[in-house]
Sequence to fold (189 residues):
Amino acid sequence: MLNREPDQTKIAALVRQLLIELGEDPDREGLLKTPERVAKAMTYLTQGYRQTPQEVLNGAVFESAANNMVIVRDIEIYSLCEHHLLPFYGRCHVGYIANGHVVGLSKVARIVDCFARRLQIQERLTEEIAHAIEDITGAEGVGVVMSCAHLCMMMRGVEKQNAVTVTSSVLGSFRTDAGVRAEFMSLVK
Ligand code: ZN
Fold:
């Protein structure tokens, strides 16, 4: 995995080559700055490779005696599919039952972004978020549900414009206790 910032000049040269191969003229006015813009955009959209959940969390884990279910709903997701480098986007709900520690609510969305801003498949993204929340909080159970539309399906191939992919990952008591899982699922419906 790349720990340094990607080389903007190298990416721009590749994008320029891509434009030529696609039959475009990279020297026409509208495309002149495109290689650099794409390099900048791709670097931003993959910044998760250069972050860890611990860094984005920045110490925002707090002790808590409560052990009720915490749910952060409707976190926006924007990611890139690793098969086509096309976006998929949608919403994600994260729930957990604390076991002594809770994480700052706004930080849950930062942790989601840390994994979404990489090349992904939705199934793995869902799993990685769940495991990160488990690792960080030591929660007794974690659930993540995500529903996304994939532009690689909508714009090409099967062209299923209305297809939404739903994935879930449940860990700990969310997996072993049907009642806990049902409570979570009903709260994020
Ligand atoms: Zn794809």
Observations:
- The pocket of zinc ion is lined by residues 81, 83-84, 86, 150, 152 (CB under 6 Å).
- Helices lie at 8-21, 34-45, 53-57, 105-116, 122-137, 151-154, 173-176, 178-188.
- The mean pLDDT is 94.
